[in-house]
Amino acid sequence: MRRIVALSELDHARHVIELGPGTGGTTCALLKALASDARLMAVDLDPAFSEIIRQFNDDRLISHTGSAEDITSAVQTHHMDGVDAVISGIPFSTIPETTGLAIVSAIHSILNPGGVFLAYQFRSDVVKRTDPVFGAPARVESELLNIPPMHVYQWRKSN
Ligand SMILES: C[S@@+](CC[C@H](N)C(=O)[O-])C[C@H]1O[C@@H](n2cnc3c(N)ncnc32)[C@H](O)[C@@H]1O
């Protein structure tokens, strides 16, 4: 978790999006690292997970139910324009290629220049989806103590 937070570069982030928060383990870690005036929008496809996130008692947090494919409109709805970082736990290896590409394009379009996209994944399929849009990852780190090992990929939108 520390690796995910460090590579998300949240020190000066104001608008942050989390894709696929699930039960909120990552969400908690991100909130701990975020400034008091920052905002975090957590987007999950599953309304049951969104409801769990909604119970977190933090004014900086917005829980949104929907697909990562539609984050452009979610960003507008919640006045989150100008996103500094997107952190994703959604499993790119199990979603259709066209959906994966649409998600990556949407992430690129909402990020500020210099903004960070971070994906933590068990498999490397995400790299095939991001390559046409972001190019090669800026950093790749692996959490080998995790079983199976977890890979953390970081991309930066060029200025
Ligand atoms: C592996 S879990 C994430 C684990 C979580 N971050 C944690 O710390 O426990 C993946 C999550 O992605 C969500 N998900 C899958 N596809 C999605 C999509 N297209 N858009 C938004 N969320 C999605 C799932 O509902 C699930 O909650």
Distance between the termini: 28 Å
SSE ordering: HEHEHEHEHEHEE
Number of contiguous helices: 6
Please give the largest β-sheet: 7 strands, mixed
Q: What is the global morphology? A: globular
- In CATH, the topology is named Rossmann fold
Mean pLDDT across residues: 95
Instruction: Return the domain count.
Output: 1
Strand order of the largest sheet: 3-2-1-4-5-7-6
Helicity range: 25-40%
Number of strands: 7
Which structural class matches the secondary elements? alpha/beta
Oligomerization state: single chain
Listed once per kind, the bound small molecules are: S-adenosylmethionine
Classified in CATH, the superfamily is Vaccinia Virus protein VP39
**In CATH's first tier, which class applies?**
Alpha Beta
What Rg, in angstroms, do the CA atoms define?
Answer: 14 Å
Low-confidence segments, given as residue ranges, are none
| Beta-strand residue percentage | 25-35%
Specify the CATH architecture: 3-Layer(aba) Sandwich
